[in-house]
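Most newcomers find our protein records easier to grasp once they have seen one. The structure tokens are whole numbers drawn from a learned vocabulary of backbone shapes. The record below serves as our worked example for the rest of this section.
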Amino acid sequence: MTIRHRITLLVILMFVALSAIGGYAVYQTRNSAANVKQVTQGVVPSALASADLVSEVKDVQLATMTLVYAPDSNMVAQAQDELKAKEASLRAALDVQAKAAASHAQEGLVAQARDSLANYFAAINDTAKMKAEGKNELAQAYLFANVAEYRDELEGIVETLRIEKNRQKDDAISALNGLLSTTTTAIAAVTGAAALLLTVIGSLLYRQITRPLSRMQEMMSEIASSQDFTRRVPVGRMDEIGRSIVAFNEMIEKIQQSSALLKQKTADIQAMLQNMQQGILTVVDGAVVHAEYSAYLEAIFETQEIAARPVMDLVFDQTDLGADGRSQVDAAIHACLGEDAINFEFNQHLLVNEIAKTMPDGRVKTLDLSWSAITDESDTVMRLMLCVRDVTELRQLAAEAGEQKRRLEMIGEILAVSQEKFHQFVDSATGFVSENERIIRQHVHADGAAVAELFRNMHTIKGNARTYSLQHLTSIVHETEQRYDNLRRPESAEKWDQQLLIADLERVKEAIERYATINEVSLGRKGPGGRGSVEGYLMVDQEHIQESLRLLESADPADMGGLLTMRDSVRQTLRLLGTETVAEALAGVLESLPSLAKELGKEAPLVRIDDNGYRVRAQVSGALKNVFMHLMRNSMDHGIETAAQRAAQAKDAAGTIDIEVGMDNQTLQITLSDDGRGLALARIRGIAVERGWIDADAQVSDETIAEFIFRAGFSTAEKVSEVSGRGVGMDAVRDLLKRENGSIELRFTDDRRGADYRHFQTIVYLPEHCAVDSVGLASERDAKPLQLDALSD
């Protein structure tokens, strides 16, 4: 017989017995049942519902506050939905109160509550409109004024209704208690008899159901407390209890299988942490390291003291991270732990990703740090996971690769320049560096003229380096030039620091020497090459030599006139030794013009050179190159217009630069002009007025205005660039020419006096001995170069 059958039989027996005993009790209690029903189903629920009204009004107040102070539209929408639901609930509750009203007073209170409720939600709706229109402050003010007034009114009415309902409830309960007192006496007798019967039935139920259940529960508790999932509860009978035991045993078996799987996964994770070649740790509350971390972390930090250690001490002690950086990281960690995951997103940029850590033996390790947040189901950050990688070797390899790349780039830059030109550049740059070093060591304190000289020399080095596209040297020279530029400016905070200036110069010197070393050692291009200086080898045309030999062989010793003619011819031929054409001297500058034009957004210019048969000596070719490097750059930057501007003036897209060489009054003259807009006299005059060089209403000639461009620090550029704008150029040109006993002047070629722009020529003057006239020599069109030992003039 199953438990269900046993219980059914006992219930039938109990029902029969209790029917006779309880007949009287039923009769006695029926009279009071109606009153109980009236109180419990009418009066009491109505009173309780009136109390709930007060709570719901409070909930409406909270939802209204949420609406007004909601930070975004999503929360506003949620609050409005909640308010609609609360309004419907309150109206339904008032309908219940209206139906359960036991007096005219209660009906009146319900009517007043309905009116007040309508006014309250109308005020709330007005507040929501203000919030939707972005009038937050007005909405808040309206909340504490009108909305609060209607809320207080509604709460007063509801509270009055609650008091009235409680009074009705108390009266009804008092009347009911009197009736129940009478019924209790009758039921007591019936209860005594029923108790005896129930005792007998309970004893039977205990033996059949309770005792087996207790035994089963006891064994289940033992299994649960001992965590011994290999044990099973024995099955004594196959009724409901027996089937429950079978189900429990099946559950224990599944738990045993899951436990074994969990242990295996835990063992796998531990094995991974012990063997993976990466440091992993988690940061818990208090910004300390959790006890579980990867074993490789000990190899990275070279310590076993990791667990429960502050992460700031373990990771960031003895690193290149400054005090301010450490404070930011520490604050970011504390701002994330225990907070919403969005805090991690906001502060993640403060968690550094790479540090250089100094180990106890002085070695420096480069560590890569990767941070991530571990959150719970509510998206709260419980831990921060930190992955640490030792990337020291990777960074070293990257640095070596970068150095190798730079070296290859430098080799390519050097190979793009002829051996002779590169040798001349190195000699020129080394000379300027030596001159700057002499100036710096002679001046303990700042001197305006000295700074201007330093700047001109360095600017010339940079210009020549850019001419030959020596990019790595250009960047280093630019930094040193920038310091000189700051020293020139009175508003700059840069101070004269002799040691610092020498250190900057050493960096430039090392960069030049590095280029020179690569050129000589790696490329094997030692010395000036085939076109060296007069101290080494000279290049002379074979036709000239043959002509000189012919004259010598055909000379008649008795013919004095012929000997004089022969002497003059040979002397003229020998004068050409160690000379070169202006085009050859300026080849490097001319070759750099296309890249300069591209940088300026202009077309590469056409350069026309008319040397009239004059050649320049190699001793001044370096100075000419430096001078025309500045002049060409000024012509491209300030003179020649862009293609669009030239097209608007019916000019060719590409500008034209003309260079003419001549001799006048025993002076070599090299004239440069272009077909650009001309000299910006109006702007030069404006700058001169700004700097107090002339008065605004002064009547000054165009020639005087043009002379201002030779002042140190002068520039008409709108902004500083790699090409111009630093106020160096023409003053450097004049200084370079003075060193060669030369000069420079500007000569206007139009009659537009007082115009904003005027066309002009730049005329460079050098002593007569700097050039040789080759007009009287044989044609050089098909000449073949012949290398001779050095000869003197």
Summary: The domain at 3-190 is CATH 1.20.120.1730 (Four Helix Bundle (Hemerythrin (Met), subunit A)). The CA atoms of residues 257 and 399 lie 54 Å apart. Residues 531-537, 776-793 have pLDDT under 50 and may be disordered. The chain has four domains: 3-190, 276-390, 401-522, 577-776.
